[in-house]
Automatic annotation (TrEMBL), chain A:
<dbReference type="Pfam" id="PF00528">
    <property type="entry name" value="BPD_transp_1"/>
</dbReference>
<feature type="transmembrane region" description="Helical">
    <location>
        <begin position="111"/>
        <end position="136"/>
    </location>
</feature>
<comment type="similarity">
    <text>Belongs to the binding-protein-dependent transport system permease family.</text>
</comment>
<dbReference type="InterPro" id="IPR051393">
    <property type="entry name" value="ABC_transporter_permease"/>
</dbReference>
<keyword id="KW-0472">Membrane</keyword>
<feature type="transmembrane region" description="Helical">
    <location>
        <begin position="78"/>
        <end position="99"/>
    </location>
</feature>
<feature type="transmembrane region" description="Helical">
    <location>
        <begin position="21"/>
        <end position="48"/>
    </location>
</feature>
<feature type="domain" description="ABC transmembrane type-1">
    <location>
        <begin position="74"/>
        <end position="289"/>
    </location>
</feature>
<keyword id="KW-1003">Cell membrane</keyword>
UniProtKB/TrEMBL annotation, chain B:
<dbReference type="Pfam" id="PF01547">
    <property type="entry name" value="SBP_bac_1"/>
</dbReference>
<feature type="signal peptide">
    <location>
        <begin position="1"/>
        <end position="33"/>
    </location>
</feature>
<dbReference type="InterPro" id="IPR050490">
    <property type="entry name" value="Bact_solute-bd_prot1"/>
</dbReference>
<keyword id="KW-0732">Signal</keyword>
<dbReference type="InterPro" id="IPR006059">
    <property type="entry name" value="SBP"/>
</dbReference>
<protein>
    <submittedName>
        <fullName>Extracellular solute-binding protein</fullName>
    </submittedName>
</protein>
Length: 305, 433
């Protein structure tokens, strides 16, 4: 699937071919400017002020940033965010690729099972978190019944490893269906002719999966991973409800720390600085991912077919 | 627009949504001068819960005779303080609002938003003299009164499961050594000695509040809150922490308290089902248990004061908890006289009787003669005597300190219990508040 630009007419689906003009993007751009760019500028300004929500913000130069740079909880929160995001990607990606390609088959039982499997995605994160919190109560929930499986005393949310495992699990439980759906759609659009050719060549199921399905899913993998990374970095509700950033500050990820600074400690200046850090990190990671994977070049995986 | 920048934009959008939450509140700064406040009405903001029936009745009664009408705004209870802080400096701030006194109103006083009640009290001295002094003074900032007590007092009490104590052959501990001995007996029987909702963190704080009072006396906290952070590093402070550590290490709270929550009903259920013998909790434990199992509560829920510590400086009758709830008035109000007349209802007999009937224990001097009308007269009398006789009633630390300190305080409190902070670490954390 290499591309050569010489001696060949532009592919009909290539760049600039019949693309709508900027006017089409105007409503979205306006909306985006009003509800994202504008607040973002406000946050950037506020990160140089000191404000408790009472009276007017007062400029305090780089104070917030200096404070943040020396803040142990902040540094720890960045590592925790990275860890939770990586765990999310590492667990959800293989699961959803396998489930997605499996669900792409047209058999009736697969349709029913994928519908059931889709249910967690329909629930709100808050409801999901409350549900799991109740299920994980050490005395009256699952750990009370199956104590040996949960490490004796069922102190699942009371240890750092346990709390991170729960957050990862609940995240995967809720969001794997979304990514499964992406992969299901993508796997269905793989031209059957590829599999037919492979059959003639005598390729087995495993070989077909690795040599046809997976390469064909490349763009979907990039999409899904970017969604997971940005989603992982901005995870908030599950942490708020399931662990409240605890035990101690052991699961205080950056987004939650921002909330804590803003709405519990009323230090909106520092909270704005944290928000800005998050914006910068998430943007950088997305850009790097897009670049590294060559996604921005928009090469079709079906070129040459 | 190329696809590259679409992705860039989507990526920013995802994160900017978060930032939005922070800025939305930033848009709401406007000073609330009387001129842009509503006419002919005053707004009263209360913490929304089951207790609102009495407030509604009071408002109805008041509106029957007043030209300026009172509108009751019930603010849903969760994050009440945060919501209040967001609106208090805006034009839509309530004229009168529910609070916990102490640190919960101190930032507002500093920002010059509250009306000193000295003038009102001059007009009607009963606004001060009708209440127990220790309670009234907890809403004074630097000696100036800013709050009139409303609703009830909520001291922290050591609750127990009578059945479990009887089976183990022990009584509610009178001294610290009794408590340690009981812990050992209960542990040997496979019962968690003390139920603790550690996941909520504030139930854990109650243990510090009583330990510091009993060992170091109430002055240490007064000093610390006043800004003298060296109080945390004193010999008494270390002694209190060491004693507490002794109790934790003895396994008094079991090993999974960090996963148990009071709010979710976890720790009250431990006590009720006999899996735990004690729980240190605010007086609302009674109504919590009652709504879960009325018969059990009547027969088996025991309560007693916190044990004494031999050699400690605190009085055995000292209390900690929510001293009371208060109404404060904002400076910008258009009708201070109406506010005053409304506040007069807070010491009326009718108000006291109505509060007692729903289980709240008012702190007016007249409360005593109505105690037999309380939802549970024995329990009400027990609490009232306790509050009346207490030489000191320490407001919960997280409410005595400004709200901005509470998150860090809760973290330190939880980390010392789970062993992540040692005595020095805890002291450093408290000094940094």
């Amino acid at each position: 699937m290499t591309r050569s630009d010489t001696g060949r007419p532009r592919h009909p689906g290539g760049p600039n071919a019949g693309r709508p003009g900027f006017a089409w993007a105007l409503p979205a751009t306006l909306f985006f400017a009003l509800f994202a760019i504008l607040p973002l500028i406000g946050v950037a300004v506020m990160s140089f002020t000191s404000w408790s929500g009472l009276g007017n913000p007062a400029f305090n130069g780089l104070d917030n940033w200096v404070k943040l740079a020396g803040d142990k909880v902040m540094m720890q929160s960045l590592w925790l965010s990275a860890l939770l995001t990586l765990l999310g990607v590492a667990i959800q990606t293989p699961l959803s690729i396998l489930l997605g390609t499996w669900a792409a088959g047209h058999q009736k039982n697969r349709a029913i099972l994928s519908a059931i499997y889709f249910v967690p995605l329909l629930l709100s994160s808050a409801a999901v978190s409350v549900l799991w919190r109740a299920l994980l109560d050490p005395n009256f929930g699952l750990p009370g019944q199956f104590s040996s499986f949960f490490g004796g005393d069922g102190n699942v949310l009371g240890t750092q490893a346990g709390a991170i495992a729960v957050l990862t699990f609940v995240g995967a439980w809720q969001f794997t269906p979304l990514h499964t759906l992406l992969y299901q759609g993508a796997a269905r659009s793989v031209p059957p002719v590829l599999y037919q050719a492979a059959d003639i060549d005598g390729a087995g199921t495993v070989r077909k999966f690795f040599s046809i399905t997976l390469p064909q899913l490349r763009n979907t993998i990039v999409t899904s991973v970017i969604l997971m990374v940005v989603g992982g970095l901005t995870t908030f509700d599950t942490v708020l409800i399931l662990t409240k950033g605890g035990p101690g500050t052991d699961t205080t990820i950056t987004a939650f720390y921002m909330y804590r600074k803003a709405f519990q400690s009323f230090d909106f200046g520092v909270a704005s600085a944290i928000a800005l850090v998050l914006v910068i990190i998430a943007t950088t990671i997305s850009l790097v991912l897009v670049r590294v994977t060559g996604y921005d070049k928009m090469h079709s995986v079906q070129e040459g077919i | 627009m190329s696809n590259k920048s679409t992705w860039l934009i989507r990526a920013i959008a995802g994160t900017a949504v978060l930032a939005l939450g922070v800025t939305l509140t930033a848009c709401s700064t406007a000073s609330g001068a009387a001129s842009n406040r509503p006419e002919n009405v005053i707004h009263v903001a209360v913490y929304g819960d089951a207790g609102n029936t009495v407030e509604e009745a009071m408002v109805k009664k008041f509106n029957a005779t007043s030209d300026v009408k009172v509108i009751l705004d019930r603010i849903p209870g969760a994050n009440y303080q945060q919501k209040l802080q967001t609106i208090i400096s805006t034009a839509s701030a309530p004229d009168i609002f529910f609070n916990w006194g102490g640190g919960s109103i101190q930032p507002f006083v500093k920002a010059d938003l509250l009306l000193p009640l000295t003038g009102m009290i001059k007009d009607d001295p009963k606004l001060e003299s009708s209440f127990l002094p220790s309670v009234f003074n907890a809403a004074a900032i630097d000696g100036v009164p800013y709050g009139i007590p409303m609703r009830g007092t909520q001291p922290v009490i050591l609750f127990n499961n009578k059945q479990v104590l009887t089976d183990a052959g022990i009584e509610s501990p009178k001294t610290w050594d009794d408590l340690l001995a009981s812990v050992k007996i209960l542990k040997d029987k496979g019962i968690t000695p003390i139920a603790l909702g550690g996941a909520d963190q504030w139930p854990t704080l109650m243990w510090y509040e009583y330990m510091f009072d009993r060992v170091a006396g109430p002055d240490l906290l007064t000093k610390a809150i006043g800004g003298d952070s060296s109080a945390w590093d004193s010999k008494d402070s270390r002694a209190a922490l060491t004693k507490l550590k002794e109790l934790i290490d003895a396994g008094a709270f079991g090993s999974n308290f960090d996963s148990v929550s009071f709010v979710d009903g976890g720790s009250p259920a431990l006590l009720r089902t006999g899996k735990a013998a004690f729980e240190l909790m605010g007086s609302w434990e009674y109504s919590t248990q009652q709504s879960a199992d009325k018969d059990w509560t009547a027969a088996n829920l025991g309560y007693a004061t916190f044990p004494t510590v031999t050699g400690g400086k605190g009085d055995a009758a000292d209390l900690v908890g929510n001293t009371n709830n208060y109404y404060s008035v904002i400076k910008a109000t258009r009708y201070p006289d109406t506010a005053r007349d409304f506040l007069k209802l807070m010491y009326s007999d009718e108000f006291v009787q109505a509060q007692l009937a729903i289980g709240n224990l008012t702190t007016t001097t007249s409360t005593e003669k109505f105690l037999d009308q309380a939802a549970d007269p024995t329990y009400a009398a027990f609490q009232f005597t306790m509050v009346q006789d207490a030489p000191a009633f320490q407001l919960s630390w997280d409410q005595a300190y400004p709200q901005s300190a509470s998150a860090d305080m809760h973290t330190a409190v939880a980390q010392f219990f789970s062993g992540k902070l040692d005595v020095d670490g805890f002291i450093a954390a408290m000094q940094a508040l």
